[in-house]
């Protein structure tokens, strides 16, 4: 019989956290670039491609967090019927969801992300581009974002705003940036955050 202990729970959480952070970095380094290649076959403008991928990342986290919130409410209601043990009902629910990731309907989230992108006024895309083209990236981001909500504390991304002051503690400048410009023209990849602290820097393009 597995017994619960704060020390063991902390070790599991730390190990899981490290794996998820590494996965976030891999998606940025590989799967983001794969999505760029797919989009460049239909869109010549690199800025538009990068904006689309950034919005896909933001929408994926939004959809996954909403799905997680709804599922956690349902799980807590079920566990509350016979919950016993030293951990709180909240922790028990997070542990249950972490061990039963198949409860997450990621396909539904992917559809929601694509629908949101189709209606996003910031994306000047040709009408023949179907955002399901980058569904692999969206699916991976949704699964990652969902798993990040099971951590204590959860991990999330920073929401950037075009025109904001460049923050070197939060972002790297893209290689085609104007390195003397103080403001962000657009975002390439979001920063990963934990309790307001930057865990992994994002990427932006700065221009005057």
UniProtKB/TrEMBL annotation:
Family of this protein: Belongs to the MIEAP family.
Entry's Gene Ontology molecular function annotations: lipid binding
Mitochondria-eating protein C-terminal domain mapped to chain residues: 17-206
Compartment annotation: Cytoplasm; Mitochondrion matrix; Mitochondrion outer membrane
One GO process term, biological-process aspect: mitophagy by internal vacuole formation
Keywords (A to Z) from UniProt: Coiled coil, Cytoplasm, Lipid-binding, Membrane, Mitochondrion, Mitochondrion outer membrane
GO cellular component: mitochondrial matrix; mitochondrial outer membrane
UniProt key word Hydrolase: no
Gene name in the database record: Spata18
Highest taxon above the source species: Eukaryota
KW Cytoplasm (keyword) present: yes
Organism the protein comes from: Dicrurus megarhynchus
Protein name (database record): Mitochondria-eating protein
């Amino acid at each position: 019989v597995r017994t619960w202990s704060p020390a063991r729970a902390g070790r599991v959480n730390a190990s899981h956290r490290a794996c998820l952070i590494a996965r976030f970095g891999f998606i940025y380094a590989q799967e983001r670039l794969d999505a760029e290649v797919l989009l460049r076959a239909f869109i010549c403008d690199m800025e538009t491609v990068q904006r689309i991928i950034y919005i896909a990342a933001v929408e994926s986290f939004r959809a996954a967090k909403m799905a997680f919130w709804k599922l956690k409410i349902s799980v807590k209601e079920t566990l509350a019927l016979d919950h016993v043990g030293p951990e709180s009902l909240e922790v028990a629910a997070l542990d249950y969801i972490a061990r039963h990731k198949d409860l997450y309907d990621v396909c539904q989230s992917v559809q929601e992300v694509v629908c949101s992108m189709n209606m996003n006024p910031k994306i000047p895309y040709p009408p023949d581009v179907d955002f399901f083209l980058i569904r692999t990236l969206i699916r991976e981001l949704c699964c990652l974002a969902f798993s990040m909500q099971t951590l204590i504390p959860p991990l999330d991304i920073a929401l950037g705003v075009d025109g904001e002051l460049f923050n070197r503690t939060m972002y790297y400048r893209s290689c085609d940036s104007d390195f003397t410009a103080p403001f962000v023209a657009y975002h390439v990849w979001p920063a990963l955050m934990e309790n307001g602290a930057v865990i992994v820097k994002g990427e932006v393009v700065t221009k005057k």
